[in-house]
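Handover notes (outgoing to incoming on-call)

Open items:
1. Transcription factor BTF3: sequence verified, structure written out, both below. Nothing else pending on this one.
2. Nothing else urgent.
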Amino acid sequence: MTLFCLVSEIDTFFNKFEKLKTLQSQVRIGGKGTPRRIKKVVHSTQATDDKKLQSSLKKLSVNTIPGIEEVNMIKEDGSRLASTYIGKISPEDEEDVPDLVETLDEASKAEVAKNKMADEKPKEN
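Transcription factor BTF3 structure tokens:
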């Protein structure tokens, strides 16, 4: 190998190195020390979360009851697991609420009746 061949190989190596360096600098977002590319984060939407929830509920053979957003879960000792919140329901559906609560014990029925009476009281000014 001659000296001329060695010099030409080194020259092509440096040319390739410079070309690679310019390509890298084009990809870099910020200055020195910043990542070359920003990782794209894909956020899951509320619709996909809702679809996953519905598919999980379908596997458990659970049906939704329209108008009810939260249910009262009461243990046998009377302690509460969750609060009750019934959304805006029509008067026709309001008659069905005691039937829906049948699976709960007597203490929870009394609690629902007490809450209903408290809601029906007129507010004093």
